[in-house]
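Help!! Second protein's tokens look totally different from the first
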Amino acid sequence: MSFNAIGNYAEALDDYTTAIELDPGNADAYTNRAVLKSNLGQNKEAIEDCQKAIAADSGFFRAYFVRGYCRYLIRDYKNAISDYTQTIILQPTYVNAFYNRGMAYSILASYKTACEDFSKVIEMSPKDYRAYVSRGMVNGKLKKFPEALSDYDSAIAIKPDHANAYYNKAYTQFEMKDFANAEKNYSNAIKIKGDYYDAYYNRGLSRYEQKKYEEAISDYNVILDKKPNDFETYLNRGLCKNQHDRHDEACADWKKAMELGSKTAETNYDQHCK
């Protein structure tokens, strides 16, 4: 969803400002300047430029799209949806407007509507792996697990090195209590992205459910080497150690998790370590 960088920002901003001074009704210049401002994190100022572009040319669809993107970034999702809808009215085949609107609907938990937008993207652009992954995620939210798995498989077929597709497929399989295949696909995600710590964490959960306690501990060790203050990982490593007859080590992990703020670890410590 991000815009591409456009050369030297300062020079480009000056160029667009000059173009606007020469032609105050230049909607394209306002919109391009808005893109640059958004890339600089100046989204409110970018929105103002888009509004000037729309005032100059109410049919200029890019201005609505860029304003929608900026509103999305500042978490004004409802107005972002309105802008994407207007973009689609003006340019019915603009794939990115459907995709971005689907993302905004998804954040607002309007999953069925989001699914419709992602399906429209796939209809117009069948090789858009992003849309399959995103539709898989909303299908998962709707508890339509077979459909979600099919979407992830489609994304992987298009882009076999897409770690998030494997991760989300594994997440769905975990929800289905298919822990062995969840473990397998978390491993696939890790092969592609070696520092995918969420995948290590969730693979640890999958291994715990299969009573593979030592392997789960190995996953949690990887995380704690890089994130030594992650209390959830200490908590879960403690659970694995307790199941693996390493009681004193489990208590040490729960104590550390307590110190980092885990109430669940405090309960476990009180029950098992005093």
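Here's the second one for comparison:
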Amino acid sequence: MHSIDHIGFAQRQRLQYIESVAYWEGLVGRKRISSVFDVSENHITQDFSLYRKAFPDQLDYDVSARSYRPSRKFRPYIGTGSADEYLSLLRTHVEGHSTAVLSAIGDGIVATGLPVPKSEIDAAVLREITRALRQGHGLKIRYQSMSHEAPRERTLWPHALVYAGLRWHVRAYDSLRECFGDFVLQRILTAKASKVKCPQDTKNDVEWHQEELVEVIPSASLSVNQARVIASEYGMKAIQNEFVWETTMKRCLVPYFLYWLRLDKDAHSPFIALKNPSLAERYKIGGEVS
């Protein structure tokens, strides 16, 4: 068996693509790989040869299809072979038709998805934020909240970026409210560096440093069979005769998590519920900076 540890990144990407397509779709040929990676079929022939030498008895050549099929002994060596891995690649392809090499894995099957908002983040603003995070200084910003009609100026001392599903936030100490909070990047209109020292140590950001256990269960209105399939859908485990998805997260993330799953106070999910309903009262999206 030959080692592939010495090969370059581009070739490794092609080999992983070959393996993934063979595993999930059952057929992979030179022409398709050549088209996806924009390299000659001669290069792809060498890739197939290397893969078969590195991992013998993995691929069988189908003369009639002029393509390779996974053998009965096939198992992934480069990728994990997990459903989540493949669906993540497929989701990348569906959502953005990204130019990332492996996102093209979805070209072999029909797939679509819901449109995702293409929000715009000011590059100059983001650059100031990332530099402030890296260098540990503050920022003077103009911020448009949803609780005030006009933008207001404030000084932030950021210490982390947070992805909340559809948008990015910066976690920071806020001079205006004199507390830590989350600020949506798209709502920061301008930003420039500030040398003013932060009045609070980030160690005092309790909601960032402390965690909350959230337990999600099937809705009580479901039948036993329905509850079982919902448990599978959400990755719940059987604990003391009930299905539960137990997940621990930073306290500042809980409101977004509940909102995302329609478990917050103002929504209602027909299929899942909180084991501890009081969490919906304690954690709400909103406030002055929303």
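Reply: Different proteins will give different token patterns, so don't panic. Residues 95 and 115 are 7 Å apart (CA to CA).
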